[in-house]
């Protein structure tokens, strides 16, 4: 898996040989969260993850269709990355049967950035749709949400300055009324790119999304 801080690691060239600059690069590495830091355990009374391993029915992101399983593989450490090419990335998943759920859990990491001034490709605005049971060609809005993005950080060491983004290790947990669907559609409306990045590199910018989990939570009356 590519490290998200590759662009800020520095390399010294000495005597024709490349060597790492351990002081700054190790400092950056120590700040960055590790894959093991991204995890989620369903609470007591929750179902298993109902989206894990389901079938992809349709997508507009054909350039990275083979990567879409990363969104629903149950592993927050894997991240889908793709380009919109003029379209908002959209994925429709077939759950195989009509299910009922009331919780969404979303991990949102980035895989590309244009410096802290240009932003990054972590998803920002999402819309999630569900199909009306027994009418798989008719969809309704399940929820619209703005996900928190990676935070920018700069460090200095021995006269050098490096700026980068740090992903949130905690997922976004969305509580919903009980909802019945057969198909679930996820649309990424925007990413955390700045307007200057969108103007300067319109065809190069990508989108990223790590994981979407779906659960049915059964709660006791006093905890609802």
From TrEMBL:
SUPFAM superfamilies: Galactose-binding domain-like. It comes from the Bacteria. Residues 62-197 form the F5/8 type C domain. InterPro entries: FA58C, Galactose-bd-like_sf. This is Discoidin domain-containing protein.
């Amino acid at each position: 898996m590519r490290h998200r801080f590759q662009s800020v690691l520095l390399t010294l060239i000495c005597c024709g040989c490349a060597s790492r600059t351990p002081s700054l690069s190790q400092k950056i590495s120590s700040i960055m969260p590790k894959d093991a830091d991204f995890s989620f355990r369903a609470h007591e009374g929750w179902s298993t993850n109902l989206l894990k391993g389901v079938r992809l029915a349709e997508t507009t992101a054909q350039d990275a269709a083979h990567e879409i399983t990363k969104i629903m593989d149950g592993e927050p450490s894997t991240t889908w990355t793709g380009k919109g090419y003029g379209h908002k990335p959209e994925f429709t998943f077939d759950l195989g049967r009509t299910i009922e759920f009331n919780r969404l859990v979303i991990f949102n990491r980035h895989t590309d950035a244009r410096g802290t001034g240009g932003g990054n490709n972590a998803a920002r605005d999402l819309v999630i749709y569900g199909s009306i049971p027994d009418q798989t060609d008719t969809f309704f809005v399940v929820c619209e949400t703005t996900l928190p993005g990676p935070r920018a950080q700069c460090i200095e060491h021995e006269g050098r300055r490096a700026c980068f983004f740090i992903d949130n290790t905690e997922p976004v947990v969305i509580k919903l009324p009980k909802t019945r669907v057969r198909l679930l559609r996820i649309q990424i409306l925007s990413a955390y790119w700045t307007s200057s990045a969108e103007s300067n590199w319109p065809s190069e910018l990508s989108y990223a999304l790590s994981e979407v989990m779906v659960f049915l939570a059964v709660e006791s009356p006093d905890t609802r």
